[in-house]
């Protein structure tokens, strides 16, 4: 079968290769790979910035945003041939920390977790793959064309879970959320905000292309002003920051409503320095009981929440998030970001 592989830490090493068909171990599903979402993590691994192959190997099968159809399944595990599934990305460390031992491997304390397509486990960028039944999540059959959005939706499901838990330390009835960034994470965060009945605002630098129309079709409001201006006008109860741009991050932290929650989901580059009034920020956060929380990855509960959110969403709207579909052989094109991209998907079949 064909698979998209890379030699981690070696730029330009990504290529489609013939690899052996996988053999499912006891308790594993055998899955036909249908589609693979491409994100910044894949591009960074392909650029040689990081990544870890499986032990004893030089190459890693790339890809963690999966979608497949079950070919065979162990009995009495809740799956059958023909089911639409995704594979969970992260797995707990072999000698689990307390969080991993309690099923919260997204909160791993010792860093010895593994991740499909990223760290020491082959990813889902192949025409067939296997996954333990415990780390497979079923999807509504109606999501066959858009179910590849499941992994990023699980990330924002966790972000919303974190917001609710932090806000729940006292009375908390938020009305307004500002999402910074109209990429897949930002738009899916907006979707979940709308499903919660909130007034949703999305901020992005794009003034044309698909993003403004996609936000408006959701029933949210689109803004292309600066973050400082946006938070001053809106005074949001919640900010979900999905850009990782340092200046935007800081302005998000200092402009929300009293008792506000800022959830950071974008990963910033290192070595970029800006001048900020940290004393003023500290004063405001303390006196207003504000909270800033980081959120990354997802556990099984978040995947289940994501599956429900996608099943409840309007399929036509979800399909607008996938702006390019590229055959597996065209992976190099898929790994090149374009200005009008929202989500790029590799077709594996």
TrEMBL record:
The keyword Lipid biosynthesis does not apply. Residues 26-138 form the Alcohol dehydrogenase-like N-terminal domain. The keyword Cytoplasm does not apply. Pfam families: ADH_N, Glu_dehyd_C. GO terms for molecular function: metal ion binding; oxidoreductase activity. InterPro entries: ADH-like_N, Glu_dehyd_C, GroES-like_sf, NAD(P)-bd_dom_sf. Keywords: Metal-binding, Oxidoreductase, Zinc. Gene3D superfamilies: Medium-chain alcohol dehydrogenases, catalytic domain, NAD(P)-binding Rossmann-like Domain. PANTHER family: GLUCOSE 1-DEHYDROGENASE (PTHR43189:SF2), ZINC-TYPE ALCOHOL DEHYDROGENASE-LIKE PROTEIN C1198.01-RELATED (PTHR43189). This is Threonine dehydrogenase-like Zn-dependent dehydrogenase. It comes from Actinoplanes teichomyceticus.
């Amino acid at each position: 079968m064909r698979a998209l592989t890379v030699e981690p830490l070696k730029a330009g090493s990504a290529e489609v290769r013939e690899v052996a068909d996988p053999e499912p171990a006891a308790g594993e599903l055998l899955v036909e790979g249908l589609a693979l979402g491409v994100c910044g993590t894949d591009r960074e691994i392909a650029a040689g910035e990081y990544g870890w192959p499986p032990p004893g190997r030089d190459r890693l099968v790339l890809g963690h945003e999966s979608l497949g159809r079950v070919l065979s399944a162990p009995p009495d595990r809740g799956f059958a041939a023909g089911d639409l599934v995704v594979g969970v990305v992260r797995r707990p460390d072999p000698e689990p920390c307390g969080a991993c031992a309690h099923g919260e491997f997204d909160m791993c304390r010792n860093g010895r977790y593994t991740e499909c397509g990223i760290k020491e486990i082959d990813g889902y960028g192949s025409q067939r793959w296997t996954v333990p039944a415990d780390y497979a999540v079923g999807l509504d059959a109606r999501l066959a064309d858009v179910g590849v959005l499941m992994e990023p939706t699980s990330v924002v499901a966790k972000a919303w879970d974190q917001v609710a838990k932090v806000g729940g330390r006292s009375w908390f009835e938020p009305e307004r959320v500002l999402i910074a960034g109209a990429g897949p994470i930002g738009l899916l965060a907006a979707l979940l905000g709308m499903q919660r009945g909130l007034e949703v605002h999305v901020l992005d630098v794009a003034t044309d292309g698909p993003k403004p129309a996609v936000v408006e079709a959701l029933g949210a409001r689109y803004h292309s002003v600066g973050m400082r201006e946006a938070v001053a006008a809106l005074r949001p109860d919640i900010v979900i920051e999905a850009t990782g741009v340092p200046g935007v991050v800081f302005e998000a932290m200092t402009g929300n409503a009293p008792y506000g929650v800022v959830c950071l989901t974008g990963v910033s580059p290192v070595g970029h320095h800006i001048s900020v009034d940290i004393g003023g920020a500290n004063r405001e956060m303390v006196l207003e009981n504000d909270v800033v929380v980081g959120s990354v990855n997802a556990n099984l509960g978040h995947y289940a929440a994501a599956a429900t959110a996608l099943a409840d969403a309007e399929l036509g709207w979800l399909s607008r998030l996938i702006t390019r579909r590229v055959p597996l052989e065209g992976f190099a094109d898929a790994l090149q970001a374009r200005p009008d991209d929202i989500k790029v998907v590799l077709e594996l079949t």
